[in-house]
Amino acid sequence: MDIKKQLNDVRNQALKELDDIKENTDIERWRVRYMGKKSQLAEIMRGLSDVPIEMRKTIGATSNAMKAELETALIAKEQEIKNLELAKSAEDAIDVTLPGRIQHQGHIHPVTQAIEEICGIFEGLGFQIVEGNEVEWDHYNFDALNIPKEHPARDTMDTFWMKGGSKPETDWKMLLRTHTSPMQARTMESTPLPIRIVVPGRVYRYEATDATHLAMFTQIEGLAVDEGITFADLKGTLNEFVKRFYGPDRKVRFRTDFFPFVEPGAEIAVSCAICGGEGCRVCGNSGWIEISGCGMVHPSVLEMAGIDSTKYSGFAFGLGIERIPMLRYGIEDVRNYYSGDLRFLRQF
Are residues 87 and 131 in the same domain? Predict the structure, then answer.
């Protein structure tokens, strides 16, 4: 076979492959294949011994020119790949002249902050923190709290009932708890006296949402049972809580109210932080926002839990958590807590 043609074929193939290379790792393989000691060019040159002497000089010169051409092409390709890598690095590089990116720091949700602070206040007053089930039996949600099936108070609590949730050996049905009060009955059944607990947790009521109401909201239930407890103890405890949480200047109002599981019952309200007591849409133009229902534990509730109501007495209260930061910070719409709007949440 004509050696000159062989050299020309190798040259053309080498240049074509070199033109297609895009990475440095492929360049090294190309170098070994076409310019190494065992390359195709080296194999051809070892066959010069079979070529007539008068042609060796011409073929040698052709071979050297071809080698020089490949080396020049190789250098050019290496520079081309290097330029491409530099351009790509420039695209990914950090421009130190640009302003820094703000790294937003996560923090605790304002409702959770309120729960932790409130629980801390009551712990300082000698209460223990316990938690209960969000899915509850209607026995503990209603019956054990002096709210039997025919009681009209059940109609005021629009309830989420659990489909198929029932206890075969009883007529108990399952529901999403409408308040944290079921833990009153459960705790009194299972805990030795005296009892002083607060119970934070979510509760659920099937009702329309507005600036001050949600279908899911958060409460903290409080319960104290011991010998000699009076309404003065209840009033003193809640007064102390309001002073510690809101400060000594916030006005507090107790007003009689009815709850089936307490007797007597009352509500505690704090002066509205939005209007300063003048009246606005948040407080229903009354100047007050209710934060707690409270009262002395009904003797029937004590007896159903196996506690002698002639010897022991107790008080209970329930705080609506979302309303408490509303009063402190002047938040006008309770729905802001769960809207996911970071502009609102970052303020806390």
Answer: no
For residue 177, being part of any structural domain is answered with yes
CA distance 118 to 321: 9
Please give the torsion angle defined by the CA atoms of residues 108, 109, 110 and 115, in that order, rounded to the nearest 10 degrees: -80
Token pair belonging to 130: 């316990």
CA-to-CA separations, 112 to 117, 119, 204, 325, in angstroms, rounded = 9, 10, 17, 11
Element (H, E) at 122: helix 110-124
DSSP 236-249: HHHHHHHHHHH-TT
Return mean pLDDT, the chain: 84
Could you tell me the pLDDT band of residue 1, with boundaries at 50, 70 and 90?
A: very low
Count of domains forming the chain: 2
Residue 298 structure tokens:
């009904």
- The rounded distance, in Å, linking the Cα atoms of 267 and 294 is 6
Residue 187 to residue 279: CA distance in whole angstroms = 40
CA atoms within 13 A on the CB side of 148: 3
**Residue 144 exposed, middle or buried by CB count within 10 Å (0-12, 13-18, 19+):** buried
